[in-house]
Amino acid sequence: MNKPTVLIIDDEPQIRKLLEINLSSKGYAVRHAESGKEGLLLASSHFPDAILLDLGLPDMSGHEVLRQLREWYSRAIVILSVQNGEADIVNALENGANDYLTKPFRVGELLARLRSAIRHSDASTVVQTVETGQLEIDLMARVVRRAGEIQKLTSTEYNLLALLARNEGRVLTHQFLLKEVWGISFQSETQYLRVFIAQIRKKIEDDPNRPVHIITESGVGYRFQ
Amino acid sequence: MAAVKLHPFWQFLIGTASIALLAMVCYALGDSMDQWAVALILLAAVSVLAVLFDIIPVLAAALLSALLLNIFFIDPIPDYKIRDTESALLFFIYLFIALVNAVLTNRLRKQEKKIRDREEKEKTIKLYNTLLNSLSHELKTPIATIIGSIDTLKEIDPEIGSQQRMELLAEMEIAGNRLNKQVENLMNMSRLETGTLKLKRDWCDVNELIFLVIQKLPATDTIRIRFEPDESLPLVKLDGGLIETAVYALVHNATRYTPKQTPIEIVTTYNKENNLLIDVLDSGLGIPETEISHVFEKFYRLPNSGTGGSGLGLSIAKGFVEAHGGTVCVANQAQGGALFRIVLPVEISRLHV
């Protein structure tokens, strides 16, 4: 199998260097672009497996690059953003980005995000069971086990957990979760989400107050791992 | 006295109306009011207006009062002509005093404003200097650590063992995190100062928020925290990110300024007045009573409070809480240690966690 290719679109040479060294050492082929225009060009000529896109570009907004990419590009896009940019991040995720990282980010985190974004953008993989730590979710039989013991979940709880688990490693926004589990008219009813996430944590986490499976991404959403 | 900031049109209207009203009352009282008494009453009214309003509306009110005095009170009434010397004297002295009064009061107020402005400017300059001092220290220290460590690793690498290498890398990591935190603080401060802070209120599980704060602390501090989540606490509507930052600042502050290994307790309550209370109680030495009122000031740090820290955390916490219409305060506990309390007026959800 060929090396997976990653296109980095970022105007900061230091960040590009850092990403390139890390990604090539992990077996990725790396391309980079310094501007949005160049990024769009390289994306269409190389059709990379994943794109790391900085939201703050000199020539055009990262959101615009994302929008234009998503007109034809269906593979993984991970956004790089600055801190305190939750609104920006949510916006990008709603517009088709697969995941995000805030600068400064840890390299381990970057690699994990990229890996799961590439995995999920490949539509051919069908997840049947998700196993992580003591937790096992059988998506075919709709059964959740913790340390081998079956956990009783209500149907809404299960639907929410299954949606998160199917997207293991990826952040899902509040709006997305509400729309998928409760329906489009519930998109702003985040109180349901809070209540159900708390209930699910009581059933699947060893310590619901220090969750290791359903992680809160403040101001953005939840991530299952 | 501070000037009442009203549009000049209203100043005109209120000024002339109050003079007219006063004159009418005096006129209605009839013979019991001597022309000299009326003059004094009107003069008093003009003086009050001069303190409150701008010069032009006050002059207008003064002229009107002189006119009314002449027409309705100076004998014979009602007539604008002045016949005897005493009445003429009264009219001109009145007019003179009223105008001088208006002008002098106005000049005094302008002088006061100038002094206030100068004090304000001096305060800003002082703040700016503190900022520069604090900033250059707080930013340059970690930068010096990073650059120094890099030089060491680059140049004398073969001579230092892998143990020291790891130590230098760990120092660089700490310095990097510290820089990041400082920049975050500065960005938050500027969001507050420039008024660009926008609240994103959303339903929030307070227990979860507190645990997120605890998780962000270094492991050596996490073990000091005592927190019993209150399961009966309702979901509340607030900007989770901002309140998390505020609570973090209080807890972080407590970990810094109390002896290692002493417990720090976090208590959350929802009270009858629809307020969410978040208390951070430490078992340190408390805060000297003379300093307690300065704790939330920008760049303020307790005397002899050791190295590190920019004095921004608590003032940002205060800003974020106040943006929610809440308050944050500090007091010393009877049994020792400080108590920091955030009070937030909140909307609660009917749904229960």
TrEMBL record, chain A:
<keyword id="KW-0805">Transcription regulation</keyword>
<keyword id="KW-0597">Phosphoprotein</keyword>
<dbReference type="InterPro" id="IPR011006">
    <property type="entry name" value="CheY-like_superfamily"/>
</dbReference>
<dbReference type="GO" id="GO:0000156">
    <property type="term" value="F:phosphorelay response regulator activity"/>
</dbReference>
<dbReference type="Pfam" id="PF00486">
    <property type="entry name" value="Trans_reg_C"/>
</dbReference>
<dbReference type="GO" id="GO:0042802">
    <property type="term" value="F:identical protein binding"/>
</dbReference>
<dbReference type="Pfam" id="PF00072">
    <property type="entry name" value="Response_reg"/>
</dbReference>
<dbReference type="GO" id="GO:0005829">
    <property type="term" value="C:cytosol"/>
</dbReference>
<keyword id="KW-0804">Transcription</keyword>
<feature type="DNA-binding region" description="OmpR/PhoB-type">
    <location>
        <begin position="127"/>
        <end position="225"/>
    </location>
</feature>
<feature type="domain" description="OmpR/PhoB-type">
    <location>
        <begin position="127"/>
        <end position="225"/>
    </location>
</feature>
<keyword id="KW-0902">Two-component regulatory system</keyword>
<dbReference type="InterPro" id="IPR001867">
    <property type="entry name" value="OmpR/PhoB-type_DNA-bd"/>
</dbReference>
<keyword id="KW-0963">Cytoplasm</keyword>
<dbReference type="InterPro" id="IPR036388">
    <property type="entry name" value="WH-like_DNA-bd_sf"/>
</dbReference>
<dbReference type="GO" id="GO:0045893">
    <property type="term" value="P:positive regulation of DNA-templated transcription"/>
</dbReference>
<dbReference type="InterPro" id="IPR001789">
    <property type="entry name" value="Sig_transdc_resp-reg_receiver"/>
</dbReference>
<keyword id="KW-0238">DNA-binding</keyword>
<feature type="modified residue" description="4-aspartylphosphate">
    <location>
        <position position="54"/>
    </location>
</feature>
<feature type="domain" description="Response regulatory">
    <location>
        <begin position="5"/>
        <end position="118"/>
    </location>
</feature>
<dbReference type="InterPro" id="IPR039420">
    <property type="entry name" value="WalR-like"/>
</dbReference>
<dbReference type="GO" id="GO:0000987">
    <property type="term" value="F:cis-regulatory region sequence-specific DNA binding"/>
</dbReference>
UniProtKB/TrEMBL annotation, chain B:
<keyword id="KW-0902">Two-component regulatory system</keyword>
<dbReference type="InterPro" id="IPR025201">
    <property type="entry name" value="KdpD_TM"/>
</dbReference>
<dbReference type="InterPro" id="IPR036097">
    <property type="entry name" value="HisK_dim/P_sf"/>
</dbReference>
<protein>
    <recommendedName>
        <fullName>histidine kinase</fullName>
        <ecNumber>2.7.13.3</ecNumber>
    </recommendedName>
</protein>
<dbReference type="Pfam" id="PF02518">
    <property type="entry name" value="HATPase_c"/>
</dbReference>
<dbReference type="InterPro" id="IPR003661">
    <property type="entry name" value="HisK_dim/P_dom"/>
</dbReference>
<dbReference type="InterPro" id="IPR004358">
    <property type="entry name" value="Sig_transdc_His_kin-like_C"/>
</dbReference>
<dbReference type="Pfam" id="PF00512">
    <property type="entry name" value="HisKA"/>
</dbReference>
<dbReference type="Pfam" id="PF13493">
    <property type="entry name" value="DUF4118"/>
</dbReference>
<dbReference type="GO" id="GO:0005524">
    <property type="term" value="F:ATP binding"/>
</dbReference>
<feature type="transmembrane region" description="Helical">
    <location>
        <begin position="12"/>
        <end position="30"/>
    </location>
</feature>
<feature type="domain" description="Histidine kinase">
    <location>
        <begin position="134"/>
        <end position="348"/>
    </location>
</feature>
<dbReference type="InterPro" id="IPR036890">
    <property type="entry name" value="HATPase_C_sf"/>
</dbReference>
<dbReference type="InterPro" id="IPR038318">
    <property type="entry name" value="KdpD_sf"/>
</dbReference>
<keyword id="KW-0808">Transferase</keyword>
<dbReference type="InterPro" id="IPR003594">
    <property type="entry name" value="HATPase_dom"/>
</dbReference>
<keyword id="KW-0067">ATP-binding</keyword>
<keyword id="KW-0547">Nucleotide-binding</keyword>
<keyword id="KW-0812">Transmembrane</keyword>
<dbReference type="GO" id="GO:0005886">
    <property type="term" value="C:plasma membrane"/>
</dbReference>
<feature type="transmembrane region" description="Helical">
    <location>
        <begin position="36"/>
        <end position="53"/>
    </location>
</feature>
<keyword id="KW-1133">Transmembrane helix</keyword>
